[in-house]
Amino acid sequence: MDFRELEEKLVAFRDARGWAEYHKPKNLAISAAVELGELLEHFQWESDWEILKAIKDPAKKEAIADEIADVIIYLTLLAHELGIDLGEAVERKLRKNGEKYPVEKIGE
Length: 108
Ligand SMILES: [Mg+2]
What we know:
It comes from Thermococcus camini. The protein is mainly alpha-helical. The protein has a single domain (3-105), classed as Orthogonal Bundle (Helix Hairpins), CATH 1.10.287. The protein has helices spanning 4-16, 25-41, 48-54, 58-81, 86-100. Bound molecules: magnesium ion. Residues 35, 38, 67, 70 line the site of magnesium ion.
């Protein structure tokens, strides 16, 4: 998987605004968690059915998409600051999950 284009775009956006000094790993990890909290606010107190109904409203769907994007943006920048290749990390974790939960054993 290739996340490099996204990473480069986010870093360029950040650097053009002089925000790099604030993007320490701790700040980015906290920011990702804060944005995840903002995402969860959309689901708090809602039933599965209410969420599926609400998502049909384009404005609500965009608001939720914005929060998902915020989380991904901060996690991508965190991986960048830690020198983690996100594509490699996801591939490696998927491989580990596949070994832990082999398809042949599902349903046993
Ligand atoms: Mg947000």
